[in-house]
Amino acid sequence: MRSNGSSLEALNRWVDEVARLTDPASVRWCDGSEGEYADLIQTMLASGDLVPLNEATNPRSYLHRSHPSDVARVEHLTFVCTPDEDDAGPNNHWMAPADAHAKIDALFAGAMRGRVMYVIPYCMGPIDSPLSRCGVEITDSPYVVANMRIMTRMGAPALARIEREGRFVKGLHSTGDLDPERRFIMHFPEELSIKSIGSGYGGNALLGKKCHALRIASYQARQEGWLAEHMLIVGIENPQGEKHYIAAAFPSACGKTNLAMLIPAEGYRKAGWKVWTVGDDICWMTPGADGRLWAINPEAGYFGVAPGTSAGTNPTALETLGHDAIFTNVALTADNRPWWEGLGDGEPATDWQGRGFDHANGPAAHPNSRFTVGARQCPSWAPESEDAAGVPISAIVFGGRRPSLVPLVFEAKDWAHGVLIGAAMGSETTAAATGAVGVLRRDSMAMKPFCGYNFADYFAHWLSFDKPGAKLPRIFHVNWFRKDGEGRFMWPGYGENLRVLDWMIQRVAGKAEGVETPIGVVPAKAELNTNGLTVAPATLDALLHVDLEGWTEELRAIDLYLDGFGERMPARLKAERVRVSEALQKAMETRETDVA
């Protein structure tokens, strides 16, 4: 760490202004070095902010416990602050910029008194990529510094790029007094700035993640002609050595990390198929000179949900977590190993709040407990993750947790239809966001909590990529979560999902015809590889069945949802809704004629 500032005067001025407002005991500029990280760890061990884990089983790994009221995103306290409320849209909580600055600056006044103020220069994406963007986060939390070092390209190289470009996203964070009544996350897209106070947890505090990489970046992307998306990026390599890269959007806790780190089913593995992990959460895509969309993962690590991660569900993640990881709000075994529900190994002795484990107190690990770990530790990490040009995207996949109606997989008719499919996406709510669990929530492109501007304008931005010369990815929708009448999952998921991705790749390559339906193309019989699959043929038929009456009702619900975004809704998307509705009606009339 250093205290001598930057050669960029605008950055120095901002740091000085923040120091005058927050009144820290000292200011330290972070360089991202190993020595700096070691010092931070020692500081947090001494203060009790970190607990060392079993060095034999989890070397150089630690547990952090957040305040019991500070355990998840706080969407109701997250604001997008634009001069015109309509620019933020009904998908965001809005506050006028002047009011927002005044409100949060009053909370920042003296907030760092007696604390160290850390200045963190960071780069989202490969340090030399033209697709990457830089930022600086100021924080009083050493936990944030340590996590930002894992999650971003942080330190001296990032500062050098910022000084060359002269432009960066400004992020100001303080844990404040952790009072939920004095907790706000404010975004100022037109100023490329973020202010967050009152939380030390996850995306509320690691401002490079959702705040920068999605809310601010989505606004930036619209201005500059690219896309910032809540998507994993996975590379699929067939036995011939051909690679296809797929970007996929799922709401939190719907299997993003499992799919990003997918281990092929046994038959595929023996045949020589391989899966490469580029990213598990965020994808930035931009049109290349060849007309294709090229993507980077702007993050350098994984901030994943721990509960449910096991040798059965995601052995790759478990191997990734074997060393040099930070765990947040998990439980501990008697021999100081991290533990969470679904792990399937060991028993909890201490719960996530540091109490002796008692079933009466609820789960041992918080349902939204997390791990932070460097991406390069992942056995399936793709070296192409560091390519400055990114990777070319062959297919975009939308999905959600839908127990009924939605087929296992279907493909959009064209780009506009694909945008409608993404806009209409829905899933049951999870513990990753505060509020009710198990309620169907429309979550367009999995961006409802993260789009930094009006969703209607966002849909129009997506549609704008469909232009002459564009070689856009095919768009698909998947649903791994269909249930039968007994409430059992109908599809085995996990490694078997490669069968579905295989069909998508065949469609991209023109090797599978599929069957046209009013909602899109589903696999024809025998197109989905079922060798070794334990799913009964009747169940597979049910998984691919299109319920015309059910989809007619679904489209009405989609109409109500999308109409809520008002007059800015693109005419082309409205026309696409009409086309699908007419196709459903025609299919029902044809069926009745055939029956007669």
Mean pLDDT: 95
Q: Decide which structural class fits the backbone.
A: alpha/beta
Q: How many helical elements?
A: 17
Principal-axes geometry comes out as globular
Explain what you see.
It is a single chain. By secondary structure, this protein is an alpha/beta fold. Helices cover 30% and strands 21% of the residues. It is built from 17 helices and 29 strands. The strands form six sheets. Strands 1, 4, 5, 6, 7, 8, 9, 10 and 11 form a nine-stranded mixed β-sheet that branches. Strand 20 and strand 21 (338-339) form a beta hairpin. The longest helix is centred in the last third of the chain and has 25 residues, at 571-595. The chain is globular, with a radius of gyration of 24 Å. The termini are far apart.
Concise account of the structure shown:
By secondary structure, the protein is α/β, with parallel strands linked by helices. The longest helix is centred in the C-terminal third of the chain and has 25 residues, at 571-595.
